[in-house]
Amino acid sequence: MKQITHTFDYQIFDSALELQSSDRELLDKAKEAVSGSYAPYSHYHVGAAVKLANGHIIIGSNQENMSFPAGLCAERVAVFAAASNFPEVPIASIAISAISDDFEVDEPVPPCGVCRQAIVEYEMKFNNKIRIVLGGQSGKVFVFQGMGSLLPLAFNEKGLAK
Ligand code: THU
Hints:
Mean pLDDT: 96
Low-confidence stretches: none
Bound molecules: tetrahydrodeoxyuridine
Largest sheet: 6 strands, mixed
CATH class: Alpha Beta
Strand content: 15-25%
CATH topology: Cytidine Deaminase, domain 2
Helix content: 10-25%
Structural class: alpha+beta
Strand order of the largest sheet: 1-6-5-4-2-3
Order of helices and strands: EHEEHEHEE
CATH architecture: 3-Layer(aba) Sandwich
Shape: globular
Number of helices: 3
CATH superfamily: Cytidine Deaminase, domain 2
């Protein structure tokens, strides 16, 4: 038996004002993307902005549905749109933010587990780490250098591709 401990690094900024300009701009796009959210059931509006290696920025927002499981998270809306429109261009970074109708989102908004798996797929596809910028409407911002930090031991069955 062997005991393994995984550790990961991330950066914590006290506010978005401390971010490098490219991260701040992408987080601003994620905040803008919130306006496209359709969230009549949770009242929690999420925005995501994906930056591609060619500089293009593609946004997404959560889209809910009366049949709850039919809805989709902002991150997957953005990442799937990016991959559909630019299938050969690696994703460089993604920023995520949210607004609630009911409370102040003053902490970084982390992607759900399914979105982590969806995003890591494109890291694997392009062998290229995706920078992840997580913010609320206010408060601290977390920056990760790749999805490996947020999803250790991600499902990765290469045999499925054969
Ligand atoms: N949501 C996202 O858009 N991204 C996440 O990573 C987690 C949750 C959405 C789904 C749903 O519309 C609302 O937030 C509340 O769960």
